[in-house]
Please model this.
Amino acid sequence: MPDAAMPLHLSEETARFLQSGLSIILASAADGEPSVGRALACRVSEGGAVVELFVVAEKAQPLLDHLRGGAPIAVAFTRPSTHRTLQIKAATAELRPLTAQDRAFIARSQQAFVADVELLMGPHQGALLRAALGSPEDADLRIVVRPNASFEQTPGPRAGQPLTSAQAAPRADPSSAIDLPARLEHDFAARQSNATLRPERRSRPVSLAAIRACLEGIIPAAVASCAPDGTPNVTYVSQVEYVDADHVALTFQFFNKTRENVLANPRVSVLLIHPDTGQSFRLALHYLRTESEGPLFEAMKARLAGIASHSGMARVFRLLGADVYRVRRIDPVPGMVLVVEDPPCCRLEALRRMGARLQNAGDLSELTQTVLDDLAQHLDMQHSMVLLLDPARSALYAVASRGYADSGVGAEIALGQGVIGVAGQQRTPIRIGYYTQDSAYSQAIRAELGDAERHALETEIPLPGLPQPHSQLAVPICQSGRLLGVLFVESTRNLRFDAADEDTLVVLAQQLGQAIVLLLAQADDPAEPGASAAPTPPRDAAPLMVRHFAANDSVFLDEHYLIKGVAGAIFMRLVRDYVRQGRTAFSNKELRLDSALGLPDLTDNLEARLILLDRRLAEQQRGVLLEKTGRGRFRLVVQRPLRLVETPGSD
Model:
């Protein structure tokens, strides 16, 4: 516990920083129960020996009760645009009424704070901050403290180091690992320009699901903890993750004081702010465990990469674990809230319409394109793709896309790589709300396969994607516990997809998985097609060279890469039969029974590979196509003479 007998005089530079219009969070504790609150402004007096904090009393309970009982206090000061943070501590605090001059000082401080916040969140943030913090007119109490300890708390290697009275708060260093973040363009910024405020003082039960918007990482959460001796600590946490109706997870990024406190005393208090209404909620949590692998950890790791990159902290933030907490209590903080007129939500109706369309799809090709068209029409998700699993290669390959200049059909991404690969590997939704340049979670391209020295030809299909995706959501497609693929959407807008969008796509992916399994069970037709006479290609048509590399079954048409792997082996089976026997009619069943193709023992692989091959041939337009002739039947359409070139090789 801080020693009250050792007063501290803050330096002039530190005093100027604390009074410059900052985000101020407070913590106290009594009987091992931490409390958290916010202050509107700070004033330093008596040569740096006294710090005055201005608060709205009704928003600061039970912290004020703890202080009235003689509990210690911790205060953190942060400039949002640069993350520069200091913390002071004191053994006790005195509560005093405001003076006539205080509200004018608070108003000037809040003006500076609003201007700084608008660097991050866009214009019209005054109403949001008034709802979250209170206005100068609402302030009714001063908390007067005499600091006996001060610490550097800016994220980075100096965090936790004490400041002495002779030390000034460090100036911003443009060469440091902290970069100025880009402005956050979110719909609420524009909508709040004409929003209205109303009082919200009713004490009513609140469910965790009802406040999931507070967990999006738009406004960092304040976390208060306390040591076994009762010394409080307060800091910001990058991410609070919804686990289920009774649990949340907090990011464990640094071995800091909060971590030390939690391991000794599992109780913490978290203060959240709703990004649309400005209403605050205080959560009482109990630490249970830390997960350093698995779906929850990977989902938080992916989201943290986006949050960190957006906020300029990509080189500082690193997830060490996901700390899981039980939610003991949720208390709404009284005060004003913003009333924002939202358009009526029609996700349930959209799901009903999309589900009906999926049931009416005639085959897998129609099914995958239908779901992407419906996402654009009903949910305004214009950039999307469906990828299916190749279990033999532990990879996902694109079978349909929408909204991109190049379809990318046939592109592969390894399980565990990027947003898509992690969602598939962990079988959990991954949602990112900010643009990230982190190579592990931005537009990920699978590393090249094959022997480049043996044939220096490009055998990679680029995965389609936006050049700067600001929001991404990947949802696994599963059925009966088996991974079938991944449904993926992205947008150029920050925070385009919220928790409700995630829930909607999870349900849609379940329906899609059921439809895939049903269609594949009906894919084979028992009737065998007979040999058919091949139409004679035009005499003046130039021959088409079909070059096959046996090492990985990659196929090139006139030196242009077509496909590889299972789809390449299927294509070569078809063209060999055409060249040798003149056959053009084939069935799914005969291909499935052909052991030479090396098809995995999964019913979906053949149908999906045929779709992939069909779409790649249609895109290439080089005189060879597949034409569906019935359920489980298709025809090879050849419009140019074929010349087969076999290139042997070894793995």
